[in-house]
Amino acid sequence: MPSIVKAIQLALQLDLFSDFLLPERRKAKPEAPELPSPTPKPIAPPTSKNDDQHSSRPSLPLAPPQDKTNAGNHRRILINGTVLEYNLQRSKRRSIGFLINDEGLRITAPRWVTIPAIESAIHEKQNWILRKLSERHERTLGKREPVMVWGDGAKLAYLGNEIVVRVLNVLNTGAHFDSETNELHVRLPVDASEQQLKDLIRNWLQQQAKREFNERLPGYAEKLNVHYHSVSLSAATTRWGSCTSQGKIRLNWRLIHFSPLIIDYVIAHELAHLKEMNHSPRFWATVESIFPDFDIARRQLRQHATTDLPNF
């Protein structure tokens, strides 16, 4: 049995899914570093050089029947004296996938992978798993805090800072930001609804997002010596940005809530895809070449999720 487990560990390439911006399983960059891909043994076909591809299924025996104490999808494992519960799903995928969601840890694995091999992979990534579970728990507690009250005096995140909404009851509608007082002056009729206030603020934020993106994109594109076709706003709940091979870039307008450092990171990330349409080491080296502080910004961005932002 140890030889079989060792063979599986050598043949598998683990890919980790982040709960940040679910389902970025769907997330561009794994939340935890992937295991290095060793040279496969003769029992498995050669692995692809493309980091986005999973290794082919090696010729290994099927997993033995599960023990009765851990029957079904719900399983437990002891990690450093702590009982970790997880949900195991079998699929046709070629590698072991980890996902942290509202239900906890979910692991997706090929049907032919043994339970000892899966639990060995859990031990390999225990630090990442426990950290992400803790972050998820903290976010869940944060959601229990009182929801934002829309009206005069409401506070809003804008470019990494907190601004105050000031409602002026006048006939003409509009919004103006006073950078000296850090206040957003919103003009609305006295009988305007809360939704009208939210719509007006959202439209203003989207305009600022478009302006920020259009000001920052050309400089990074020039540094990288690439040309993008177009840029548009996205309202996706699952990702902060995307880039097609045709150079069409979409950036989530909710980035306007965050600091310029984070905005620049996402822009550099998407532009780098015009050179590397993957997330290989060469891709991250490309990002770093035009944005050296990308790792700092990436860690900051991981602390955010669209569910934590104001609901418009």
Report on this structure.
With 312 residues, this protein is α/β, with parallel strands linked by helices. The protein is built from seven helices and twelve strands. The chain has helices at residues 2-11, 115-124, 126-142, 194-224, 260-272, 281-290, 294-302; strands at residues 15-16, 74-79, 82-91, 97-101, 104-110, 155-158, 161-169, 174-178, 183-188, 230-234, 241-243, 248-252. Strand 2 and strand 3 form a beta hairpin. The longest helix has 31 residues, at 194-224. The chain starts with a helix and ends in a 10-residue tail after the last helix.
Q: What integer is the average pLDDT? A: 78
Low-confidence stretches: 1-71
End-to-end distance: 55 Å
- Please compute the radius of gyration using only Cα atoms: 23 Å
Largest sheet: 5 strands, mixed
Order of helices and strands: HEEEEEHHEEEEHEEEHHH
Indicate the structural class.
alpha/beta
Q: Give the overall silhouette.
A: globular
Tally of strands: 12
Portion of residues in beta strands equals 15-25%
Strand order of the largest sheet: 1-4-5-3-2
Helical stretch tally: 7
State the helical fraction.
25-40%
